[in-house]
Amino acid sequence: MYKALENLQPAAVWRFFNDILQIPRPSKHEEKINQYLVEYGVNKGFETFTDNVGNVLIRKPATSGSENRPWVCLQSHIDMVCEKNSDKVFDFQKDAIVPVLKGEWLHADGTTLGADDGIGVATALAILDSTDIEHGPIECLFTVDEETGLTGASALKPDWLKSRILLNLDDEDLGEICVGCAGGIDTVMEIDYTTESVPAGCQAFTVKVSGLKGGHSGDDINKGLGCANKLITRILWSATDTLGLRVSTLEGGNLRNAIAREASAVVVVPAQNAEKLQQAVAEFDKAVRYEFRSTEPDIKVSIAAADMPTNLIEKSVQDNLLNALYACAHGVLAMSREIPNFVETSTNLASIKMDGKKIHICTSQRSSVESAKHAAASKIEATFRLVGAKVTHSDGYPGWTPNPDSKVLKVAADAYRRLFNEEPTIRAIHAGLECGLIGEKYEGMDMISFGPTLRGVHSPDERLEIATVEKFWRHVIEILKNVK
């Protein structure tokens, strides 16, 4: 067992989390964790099923005297966001996540921790493994590919679950009970480009934006964080006309559901403007440090000499690209008119990639209002259609409408008050949860989402507050005891 996890309580949860950390499980590559779960269920003698996309369902009978209680489903996703610091050598397809204790928090060594939602998976397994916890019949649903498309939840068979009560173990604040979430859709652009030779008498540089926190494109979109893709566009766009800057490569961000933390571009300028470009970057660095002084203390915009590239993006394409990226909306588009301080609609300029023939730009839109979600996606589409980009949209996923008459919500809220003598916070979130899709397939499913406290998810700063895991565990047990 990892030293960082030794002696942590509850021991059963941390034992399973220790196993999970050592199993590679990027989204769409969950084969190894799938095998682990299936082998566990079979070896314990539980009914164990897997479907054609890799979701796993394990059923456990009720404890003695609780056989007539309703079925309850504990649901969590088995994939994780794979982000690392640029200087970290790590293969998410092969390497184990290494946990690091820092005070009251558990981090990983230069990568995402995967507590989103590995800690939910570990908690469900610890419930399955228990012999002294009172509960009715339960089934644990482990879904694939939540982070990059919710395809596991989307592919659920409508007759697979016996439960009509579902506990989603994928929230990120202890003491919070989530009863609704935003729907989402991706808008993806492709811009064809040709290249041209580098003019004589140029100097080459690499311009970088780094040091940003990144974070979840739903939960963190209203926190005033910097988007590396937007920031690097600003300096490149400005220097194109004033200094004759030309772009060879431009890349930033990685995942559709993460705010871009880093971006870089290889550029050239006429030799006589080289010093001016360096000065412009230094001034821009100073300006954005001030702009983001309260939210991004480690932000850095840098420039360094680079090897001369072999070619450049054709000038007209470069102009169209930078104009569209500058105009592309990013951040909060609308706040809720009914719920104070609740983001209704947002968009995220997630990633910019080049493959030698096409420039690929990925964005994601979220809203708790279905029409506003599609309007936001159309807004992005319209921006890029102006420059001739090919635009496609994902199928998207629905939001989850709060149910004020939820019985399991009352059970969970009462349990939290009894355990901790505190009033839980009951709210909807701007992030996407699988509950929307599950509720669509299972009409009348009574659902809540809750979990221990996580921060910095979808970034290498992801961390789990250790003390909240035990409280979360106790809350799960108390709910299961009182669902009748």
Keywords, separated by commas or semicolons:
about 475 residues, alpha+beta, 5-stranded antiparallel sheet, 11 helices, elongated
Q: Strand content of the residues, in percent?
A: 25-35%
Low-confidence stretches: none
> Which structural class do the helices and strands define?
alpha+beta
Report how far apart the termini are: 37 Å
Report helical residue fraction. Answer: 25-40%
**Order of strands across the biggest sheet?**
1-2-6-3-7-21
Quickly count the helices: 11
If you compute it from the alpha carbons, what radius of gyration comes out, rounded to the nearest whole angstrom?
24 Å
| Biggest β-sheet strands, sense, barrel | 6 strands, mixed
Average pLDDT score:
96
- Count of strand segments: 23
Shape: elongated
Oligomer kind:
single chain
